[in-house]
Amino acid sequence: MSESKPPVLKQIFLLKFSASLILFSFSLRWSLTLLPKLEYSGAISAHCNLHLPDSSHFPASASP
């Protein structure tokens, strides 16, 4: 009778999957800890210059 062996392909898949999961979790952790440092150093700046028209900035064609 043949012995019951775990499939090799399943073991390889589980090994690759777990290695990918570990690599993904470390890269996500690294990027989340690096993000505030980049933001405070000025590498990432989110500025929103919103110029709303007020009464002194109307175009000449809009005046009566």
Task: Tell me what you see in this structure.
Helices cover 53% and strands 0% of the residues. The chain contains 1 helix and no strands. The chain is rod-shaped. The mean pLDDT is 70. Keywords: Membrane, Transmembrane, Transmembrane helix.
The Cα radius of gyration reads 29 Å
Mean pLDDT across residues:
70
- The shape, in one word, is rod-shaped
Structural class label: mainly alpha
Distance from N terminus to C terminus (CA atoms, Å) equals: 101 Å
Residues in helix, %: 40-55%
Proportion of residues in β-strands: under 5%
| Order of H and E elements | H
| Unreliably modeled segments | none
For the report, how would you describe the main beta sheet? Answer: none
Q: If helices are DSSP runs of H or I spanning 4 or more residues, what is the number of helices?
A: 1
Find the count of extended strands (DSSP E, 2+ residues). Answer: 0
Keywords: Membrane, Transmembrane, Transmembrane helix
Write the SSE topology:
Blueprint: H1 8-41
Transmembrane segments: 12-32
Keywords: Membrane, Transmembrane, Transmembrane helix
In short:
The model has no long low-confidence stretch (mean pLDDT 70). This protein has 64 residues and is an all-alpha fold.
